[in-house]
Design a protein that fits this description.
The protein is mainly α. It has 2 helices and 2 strands; from the N terminus they run αββα. Strands 1-2 form a two-stranded antiparallel sheet. Helix 1 runs antiparallel to helix 2.
């Protein structure tokens, strides 16, 4: 392989491409964590559906369990679920925009590299 020095505009685009790939990976990890927490919250809510209001329920707080009223816990979990769903939608939009920018930049780079990376390109 020869030591060909890429023009500064190509180097800049390659750096931006790597940055976008890193951003996308971070978004995917965030989304995965949110999905796990959302599934866990939904399972907890489903479990509480079959529990009467008089039944003692406990919530894990750090390394201890704290007694909570069932209705309070249902309210907290429902609010948390709504927050997680909203956050998930925001991350999905960010992911979509990042993928679009990544694809566009890849096309631009491929075009420039196939043209011999002529200076003064787009």
């Amino acid at each position: 392989m020869s030591n060909v020095q890429l023009p500064p505009n190509i180097q800049e685009r390659l750096a931006r491409l790597q940055q976008l790939q890193s951003t996308l990976q971070s978004l995917l990890l965030q989304k995965q964590r949110l999905d796990l927490e959302l599934n866990e919250t939904e399972r907890a809510l489903k479990t509480l559906e079959g529990v009467s209001s008089e039944t003692k329920v406990y919530r894990s707080v750090g390394a201890i369990l704290v007694e909570k009223k069932r209705d309070e816990l249902v309210k907290e979990l429902t609010e948390r679920k709504e927050f997680l769903e909203m956050r998930s939608k925001v991350i999905e939009k960010q992911e979509k925009k990042t993928r679009e920018r990544l694809t566009s930049l890849q096309r631009t780079l491929q075009k420039e590299l196939s043209q011999g990376a002529a200076p003064g390109g787009p």
